[in-house]
Amino acid sequence: MRSGRLRPTVCRAIAVPVALALIAGPAVASPAGTRAKIRSAKAQLAALEAQIATQQASITAMQASMRTLAVQVAHARRDYDGVQAQIAQTQALHAAAEERYRAIRSQIDENAANAYMRGPAYGIESVLQQSSLSDAASVLGYTNAIARHDAELGDLARAAAAELANKARQERDLLTRRGDALARVTSAQNALVRAFVEEQSRLAWLATAKAQMGSLLVRLRAQLRAEELAAALQALSNGTPMSFGRWATAFLGRLGAPIGRNDLVAVVAWETAEYTSARWNPLATTYPMPGSTTFNGSGVRNYASLSQGLQATIATLRAAGHGYEAILSNLARGADPIATARAINASDWCHGCANGRYVIDLVPVVAQYFDRYAQARAGA
Questions:
Q1: Among residues of the chain, what percentage have pLDDT more than 90?
Q2: Facing residues of 302 across strands?
Q3: 4 vs 104, residue with greater confidence
Q4: Is residue 130 over pLDDT 60?
Q5: pTM higher than 0.70, yes or no?
Q6: CB under 8 A, 24+ apart: contacts of 355-364
Q7: Within 119-243, where are the H helices?
Q8: Which of 7, 74, 263, 359 is least surrounded by Cβ atoms within 10 Å, i.e. has the fewest?
């Protein structure tokens, strides 16, 4: 058993005009329901991306608002601390004024008690009891001094009481200001907390939305691949051959390579270069499978089903020692179809066929007229 296949060159190199003449039949369209689901998924994805963009802008604005609120909290806190310091100073002054007032009141009370004990005629009696006018004048002056001192104490008491009342008003005003400042601090802090909670909520929503978008992308890619594979794997009834394009799509999907134009062009050009009627074997591999039969003297096989043909072709390409690694590598990364064609030409698949131009010469024309080549059918 050979992993590669060697057949006469004449069977492989079909001139482009002949190949074009053999192309016929429209490709089967994908199911409308699947296309509708894909369009819906893409619309949902676009809407989600728009929501994420809007949310990101909102979070940026929210962060700016939070910085402003933080400044307001700092200012309110400084105002509150300043008022608190003034209250402490005013309370100290209030206490000092209250102490002075109590001292003056105590002295007034003491003088009043002395005057009561002396009686109301004390000053006149003292003057009359003196033996000389000089002594009487001294006693009278002393009595007047006591009266003046009592009057001064009264004035001081009134002034102290007024100062005490003023300090009390100042303290009440400062306490009111402190209450206002505290209310502003509390309000600003509450606003900051609310903004922070809202920002965290939006960030959580954004993380969830991103995860949903990633999941949606995965599902969308899987759905696209499933659609393309389902369309390619649909075996047409009554032995109707499968188109090159649909087989290429099925092959790339089973291989796990990207189903993009580069790889499709390369594989369809490869199928065109072989143009074999071997059943479910458009690349003409010789890999034996249960139930397969011999197609020609070179060992090319007829396979029992599309799935078996795909399995055999991929098993051939994964066999070591034939130079197929470069083919698989190029298909896996969706390389330029010319590069993939050169890798095919350099491998044991058909090295030197078509005067060394195997597959390579077909790539430009297949790329130019891809739809027509993709609709070509050989054996199935």
A1: 31
A2: 293
A3: 104
A4: no
A5: no
A6: 355/9, 355/13, 357/13, 358/12, 358/13, 358/273, 359/266, 359/269, 359/270, 359/273, 361/16, 362/16, 362/19, 362/269, 362/272, 362/273, 363/265, 363/266, 363/269, 363/337, 363/338
A7: 122-128, 133-233
A8: 74
